[in-house]
């Protein structure tokens, strides 16, 4: 077996992402030693029981000390304090990265604490489940998923021209070792792309589930019993970790509000078309949206099976029932 | 093999639903003869090639003649004209039903054309896929799905007290033979329940996909490439048949606008919480929405696997990747 990519890898935060990363790192033989840290003693105890890491530390400092790669896996709102805490023990040449769903805010909060000689390369693996906590982690989480790295100093736009910097190349190699496909972007563009492809969809899902739970004419049990007509998709998305998502919206505010504004404008137009019985307007939109779906299937980003394409199988008939 | 439930079953409309119903009817041995009709000659020709029915007729009248059960499987907007066309040939004692996603409008449009001695029992199987057309049909579509019957004369509220009427009981038996679980409701309540559990989710999905396709700062290819972060779920829903859904929104306008109004109010509050950085408000909602998900899983309406629970399997690790 070849020499591991890193000596010591420190994973700070052992929830779904951190626990999965620990398992993926071990599966890939990417570290000689995996050190883990979690804020709560319960999580640390559980991580030790699960054997997620070679060593579970009581402080972030102890975990980061002597580490060659430090991965921030806590909710993004906690990154600043975490970076300030570990800064004094970061060793020269070490790489600091993260798995946060927003990137500009992470650059803003973490960047100032990174000492000279330490490499800071923000990252975001586009992978997760609606589960949370160390028990939810699994080594396959990142398999075949995109991991976006947003190395700094690349300026706006495509960041691939700095992708060949040694520390960036090494981190990319690490993620590929975890099963991911790696892409490069500048932090601002990442936040715009994720605002529409992930953050707004989650916001809308949380919102409609909230609306449904407040109805008087329709009982909760009706909603639950007949949730298969489309609603159920939203409930799954709206079951994602509240702390993580609170921090996402607080830390990608401008991009989310921009996308939400456009969404609301379009929804008002749609509402008007329904009120005035403008069937042509409805038909035109409903036909247009079909094309994007085809592009996604053509691009291999999804098969004609559920969203969980890589993890789910169609039924015997090769169809997936969406209960429309 | 026991005597079929019906002599001749006429299926008017041979798209996803009609084609699936023809296959399910045959699988269940529920008819001595299955007669089909489709408006377009292409669909009729394809239905004949697929052998969906025992006989494919060029007119709705020919299909409905001598039928013991007539099922309207066209988009709901076409039901009125269809009912008017077949009315003269409906035989006494025959049952007329439908698979429309709205029920009050169907009662309004179809009811007046039903002759005395013919039984009209509106219905709605909560099943479908994002596919369309006769080739998309499969016999298992209705397996384990709810089929809501809205028999008339039951007044508002629970309609179960008229569920024991002979024709209603027979139709319920037919749907159970197609693999469905049958429930009874009054049309108005059905439309309210489906407005929140199915119609609004589809409207929102169509809308966000439309919004995403109109962006300037984020390219289509970015949206497609990174659609796994939640957006992809919406694209699948927004790939549903445009004609069917146009008719749903035109024919359940009041209920949809009511639910949409509540959704928009709640979304404005959420938007404000993001703008003003009210993390507590966000966290409270995001925690509350988790409970409904648990109820759905507890109620067996979904497993912890993808929305397509009955048709999809989790990955080896028993997890489903939502790419959050």
How would you explain this protein's 3D organization?
The structure is a homodimer of 324-residue chains. Chain A is α/β, with parallel strands linked by helices and 324 residues long. Chain A folds into 2 domains: 6-186, Rossmann fold (3-Layer(aba) Sandwich), CATH 3.40.50; 189-298, Orthogonal Bundle (6-phosphogluconate dehydrogenase C-terminal fold), CATH 1.10.3660. Chain A is built from 12 helices and 9 strands. Chain A has helices at 16-27, 41-50, 60-64, 79-86, 104-110, 166-177, 187-213, 220-225, 231-237, 242-251, 253-275, 279-298; strands at residues 6-12, 31-37, 55-57, 69-72, 95-98, 119-120, 123-125, 146-149, 181-184. In chain A, the strands form 2 sheets. A 6-stranded parallel sheet of chain A has the order 3-2-1-4-5-6. In chain A, strands 7-8-9 form a 3-stranded mixed sheet, covered by helices on one side. In chain A, helix 7 (187-213) crosses helix 9 (231-237) and helix 7 (187-213) packs across helix 11. Chain A starts with 5 loop residues before the first strand and ends in a 26-residue tail after the last helix. Residues 303-324 of chain A have low confidence and may be disordered. The interface between A and B is large, with 124 and 123 residues.
């Amino acid at each position: 077996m070849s020499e591991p990519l890193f000596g010591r890898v420190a994973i700070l935060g052992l929830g779904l992402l951190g626990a999965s990363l620990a398992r993926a790192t071990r599966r890939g033989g990417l570290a000689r030693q995996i050190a883990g840290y979690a804020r709560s003693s319960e999580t640390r105890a559980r991580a030790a029981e699960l054997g997620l890491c070679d060593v579970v530390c009581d402080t972030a400092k102890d975990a980061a000390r002597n580490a060659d790669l430090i991965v921030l896996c806590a909710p993004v709102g906690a990154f600043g304090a975490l970076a300030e805490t570990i800064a004094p023990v970061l060793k020269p040449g070490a790489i600091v990265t993260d798995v946060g769903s927003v990137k500009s805010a992470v650059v803003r909060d973490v960047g100032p604490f990174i000492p000279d000689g330490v490499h800071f390369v923000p990252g975001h693996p586009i992978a997760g489940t609606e589960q949370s906590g160390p028990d939810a982690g699994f080594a396959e989480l990142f398999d075949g998923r995109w991991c976006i790295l947003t190395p700094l100093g690349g300026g706006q736009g495509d960041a691939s021209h700095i992708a060949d910097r040694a520390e960036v190349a090494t981190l990319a190699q690490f993620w590929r070792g975890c099963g991911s496909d790696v892409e490069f972007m500048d932090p601002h563009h990442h936040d715009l792309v994720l605002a529409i492809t992930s953050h707004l969809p989650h916001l809308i899902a949380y919102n409609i589930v909230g609306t449904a739970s407040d109805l008087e004419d329709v009982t909760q049990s009706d909603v639950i019993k007949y949730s298969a007509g489309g609603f159920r998709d939203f409930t799954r998305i709206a079951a994602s970790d509240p702390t993580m998502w609170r921090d996402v919206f607080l830390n990608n505010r401008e991009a989310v509000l921009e996308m939400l504004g456009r969404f609301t404008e379009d929804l008002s137009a749609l509402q008007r078309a329904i009120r005035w019985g403008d069937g042509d307007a409805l038909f035109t939109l409903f036909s247009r949206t079909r094309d994007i779906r085809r592009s996604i299937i053509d691009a291999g980003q999804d098969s004609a099976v559920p969203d969980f394409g890589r993890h789910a199988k169609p039924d015997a008939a090769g169809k997936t029932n969406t209960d429309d």
